[in-house]
Amino acid sequence: MIRGRNRYPLLSGNARKRSCWIGVLVFGLLLSNVLFASDDLASVVHLKRGKLWESFTIGNTGQQFDNFRRHDYCMDWPGFDYEYVGTDIGGPYSHHAGSGFCIGALIGPDSLLLGIERWGLFPTSSIGTSPNDKYICTKNRLKYPNGENYWLQSDPNEAEEVVETVWEFNPSYVFDQDVRSYYLPIKVDRTARAWSGSQKDEDYIIIDYTITNTSFSDPDTLFDTYILFTYSFSVNHRSLQILYPQIANGGNRDNFFEYDSRRNLFFGYNGDYTEEPGDDTYDYWPTGGPDGEGEWLAPAYAGLQFLYISPNDNGEENHIHDYTWSAQDPTITTNPFSAITGLDKGSYTVLEEPSLGAYRAGDGEEHFGTERMITCVSLGPWTLLPGDSIRIVTAEVIGGISYNEAVDKYTNSFIVKMGKYTLFDNAERAQFNYDHGYNVPDPPPAPSFEIGRSDPQLGNVISWSDSVESLADADYSGEEAYDLAGYRVYRSVYLPIGPWDVIADVELGSADYYDAASGRYSVVDTNVTAGQGYYYALTSYDTGHNSWPPDPGAGRVRSLESSLHANRRMEPFYTGPPPREDFPSVRVVPNPFVMESGYTMPRDQDVIQFVNIPGNCTIRIYSIQGNLVKTIRHDDGTGMHKWNQVTDYGQFVESGVYMYHLYSEGTKKSTTGKFAIIK
Ligand SMILES: [Ca+2]
Ligand SMILES: [Ca+2]
Ligand SMILES: [Ca+2]
Ligand SMILES: [Ca+2]
Asked: Strand, helix or coil at 228?
């Protein structure tokens, strides 16, 4: 037993008591400030800059694991805010359901356990923000909270979005005297980085961990330190909701996994769920997509890559010690530690040898296709003297066919399978980025844009200023740094992830679109239907270059286009005539409304329209007797609203004269008028 060992190496007994009381006082003060209230210490921080979206809690990447249920962005790709989509499309595309790591070390070589902390999928160790917590989180924040480094405008050798997190052993922690007091005197610095880049750098997120032995007394050397990364890949959440709702909360039982040793890349894809008849690899939905002509719901390949691992005690750099896929029986809660009971030292042995865990896939591949698989990667061993640190740099990488291809009726499973090679491309790009000190060839910035309504012809007007043309590409000097060559306007009529069509390719200074006097470009999209919502995105592209000065050996740089995801509208823009706040022009058309003879009920085209109305108003319709028959909320920003003549009570209105009362939410003014319906 190690009970006699001093568990408080940094404090004497009296100091410990004092520290405890100070802790209570400080804690009382903190309570009035509410935990996680500061900008530097949020309970969860999101990276949403590129196409791959992720969450960072303290201790976990993505959400905290909850039996494969989704609660937050977890390698969402393509990321989008699902709540803005009016119809139920089965939810977002998440590719894992929580991840993290466990760490353990011994008191001496092959000796007793010093400590083990499970911060991975099945956490047993607490990290908090109070002075009473065993590990105290002091930082979980965005480094650029206001987008200061979008398009690399603050630091070209840093990511566009960065999450910084720190948690550290609390030397004042009061151990329960009845429990063996294992602990690790360590500090974890985690920095996660995201780019939008050239439509390639938006498909990975790099997560850089530094783990430091923070003690300064010799007994607190960490011997035989092992780290086990655990990832609950789930490729993918959306298809489960649509195709297998009966097992949606039972987890993802159709995921297959591989290890690519050349790229230090562990990845999964959606394979065949063997308990259902037929081959459902990549989860095809025959009636999905914008035209109901079919959609591949799970075409992506999702990976965990190791870009750098500090040399272990054997001097091996970038070394994977061991790995397995722990199979989780969907009917019982098992995890990589389930085969071990009681002893923390037993859990430690799983860090060193993950195949000791429950239902390991090492038995053969029979678990793929029926069980929920957890990726387990063991790193080490390291000896960490007081003050020593190790560094582990991972990348979450994703690849696959585009959303346009996923909803294209000519895309077959062979084409989807080729998406694996985009995963490999993206993994190599992540490695390139890391190897070049977080610098890559960059596209030009894309300008923010406005959408308006054309008048009198129906159309949507996309406009932007030429201001980004004066921003230099930091990788070049002189004239060559100003390399923006043109813009592309994209449109989707289905979802804010596409499918996208280019509706205009605008060359720099093009006379067709550019007004030099105002310094603005504008594109009028007249291929539109009143009442339809449209998503727009605007990108910039550059000229391409003969070389890349930061690494001349990297060769030519082709023309690069900025990310569509980083500069798109997440909410649809509704087409209609421009709104009008001047009430004299409000009209009801047609008036009188005359039902065609032979029909007793209005048909689809028999709508009454309120035109020249404010973009945000409330219209109340009364019978001539003064009874309210319909309340209309109009807030799509257009100057027109269609009414199908159905009352608030679900009935069609009778023939007669009606009054309306229109209240503008903008000007707080109202007007009234009359119209007639003749049947
Ligand atoms: Ca099947
Ligand atoms: Ca499947
Ligand atoms: Ca660069
Ligand atoms: Ca460039």
From this structure: strand
Q: How far is the CA of 93 from the centre of ligand 1 (A)?
A: 21
- Take residue 349 and report the two structure tokens written for it: 């042995």
- Could you tell me if 541 and 516 lie in one domain? yes
Query: Which ligand is located closest to the Cα atom of residue 235?
Result: 2
Ligand positioned closest to the Cα atom of 275: 1
Ligand having the closest approach to the CA of 159? 3
Q: Which residue has the tokens 């400030």?
A: 33
Q: Which 8-state DSSP code applies to residue 648? A: T
Question: How many domains does the chain fold into?
Answer: 3
What type of residue sits at position 54?
A: E
589 and 674 part of one domain? yes
Domain that holds residue 612: 583-678
Is 492 inside any structural domain? yes
Backbone angles phi, psi at 442, to 5 degrees: -115, 145
pLDDT digit string, tens, across residues 503-542: 999 999 999 999 999 999 999 999 999 889 999 999 999 9
**Is residue 386 in a domain?**
yes
> Which CATH number characterizes residue 495's domain?
2.60.40.10
Q: Which ligand is nearest to the CA of 545?
A: 4
Measured in Å, residue 281 CA sits from the centre of ligand 1 at: 8
- All residues with CB under 5 Å from ion ligand 2: 254, 270, 273, 280, 283
Which residues lie closer than 8 Å to 268 by C-beta, 6 or more apart? 233, 235, 255, 256, 257, 258, 301, 302, 303, 373, 375
Q: Could you tell me if 190 and 264 lie in one domain?
A: yes
Structure tokens at 506: 């605008």
**Cα separation of 634 and 531, whole Å?**
12
CB 639 within 8 A of CB 579: yes
Claim to verify: residue 559 and residue 614 sit in the same structural domain: no
Least distant ligand from the CA of 542: 4
- Distance from residue 271's CA to the centre of ligand 1 (Å): 8
Please name which ligand lies nearest the alpha carbon of 282.
Answer: 2
pLDDT tens string 186-211: 999 999 999 999 888 999 999 999 99
Q: How far apart are CA 370 and CA 357, in angstroms?
A: 18
Give the three-state DSSP class for 154. Answer: coil
pLDDT at 10 over 50: no
- pTM comes to 0.87
Cα-to-centroid distance, 397 and ligand 3 (Å)? 20
> pLDDT higher for 194 or 455?
194
93, 233: one domain: yes
Split at pLDDT 50, 70, 90, the class of 167 is very high
Q: Is residue 665 domain-shared with residue 621, that is, in the same domain?
A: yes
The per-residue DSSP string of 563-604 comes to -SGGGB-SS-EE-SSPP---GGG-EEESSSEEPPTT-SS--T
Q: Which of 425, 549, 434 is nearest to 483 (CA)?
A: 549
524 and 653 in a single domain? The answer is no
pLDDT digits (tens, 9 = 90+) for 545-590: 999 999 999 899 999 999 999 999 999 999 988 899 887 789 898 8
pLDDT tens per residue across span 637-678: 889 998 888 899 888 888 899 999 999 999 999 999 999 988
In this prediction, residue 345 carries a pLDDT of: 82
Q: Can you give the pLDDT at residue 44? A: 95
In the chain, % of residues over pLDDT 70: 90
Query: Within 13 Å of residue 528, how many CA atoms lie on the same side as its CB?
Result: 25
CA of 282 to the centre of ligand 2 (A): 5
- Whether residue 29 is predicted with pLDDT greater than 50 in this model: the reply is no
**What digits encode the pLDDT tens for the residues 369-418?**
888 899 999 999 999 999 999 999 999 999 999 999 999 999 999 999 99
CA 622 to ligand 1 center in whole angstroms = 57
Asked if 415 and 480 sit in the same domain, the reply is no
CA of 564 to the centre of ligand 4 (A): 16
